[in-house]
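Q: What residues go here?
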């Protein structure tokens, strides 16, 4: 914020005419076009809208509480979504780098589950279930994974 800059507060436009410090924070003297003064006002930028506002409390960083709720809910959603996306991408890269043999119209690879786990594969995350040739399977994008009966090996089909 600079002297001469304008700020909208409660439907009125105020001009910043002076700046000083209060408790280590910059405070401003404001004057409206009709001559109303607001002295020694703290001005912060809303962390959601990035707009200047005059806080009513010392610990207020959002214009309204609804904006604070929105910001925190978006952060929660994004962190969970990012975590799952990162795991799926890691699994996809691991499956892509395996060596496949052509079997009919598919490319097939049989791998020990321990080998996949050593490479960082997370078997809990997949994108879909499918029924491939009468066998219930899990899918990861274009890959189909069929586990052996003893759960030591997995057959990976690249469609």
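A:
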């Amino acid at each position: 914020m600079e002297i001469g800059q304008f700020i909208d507060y409660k439907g009125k436009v105020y001009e910043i005419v002076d700046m000083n410090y209060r408790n280590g924070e910059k405070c401003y003297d404001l004057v409206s076009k009709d001559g109303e003064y607001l002295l020694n006002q703290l001005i912060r930028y809303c962390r959601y809208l990035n707009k200047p506002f005059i806080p009513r409390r010392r610990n207020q960083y959002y214009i309204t509480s609804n904006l604070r709720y929105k910001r925190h809910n978006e952060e929660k959603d994004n962190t969970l979504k990012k975590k799952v996306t990162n795991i799926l991408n890691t699994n996809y890269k691991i499956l892509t780098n395996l060596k496949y043999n052509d079997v009919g119209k598919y490319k097939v690879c049989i791998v020990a589950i321990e080998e996949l786990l050593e490479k960082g594969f997370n078997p809990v995350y997949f994108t879909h279930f499918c029924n491939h040739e009468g066998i219930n399977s899990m899918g990861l994008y274009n890959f189909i994974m069929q586990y052996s009966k003893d759960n030591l090996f997995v057959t990976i089909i690249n469609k």
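A: Context that may help when evaluating the design: The chain has a mean pLDDT of 88. The CA atoms of residues 79 and 140 lie 21 Å apart.
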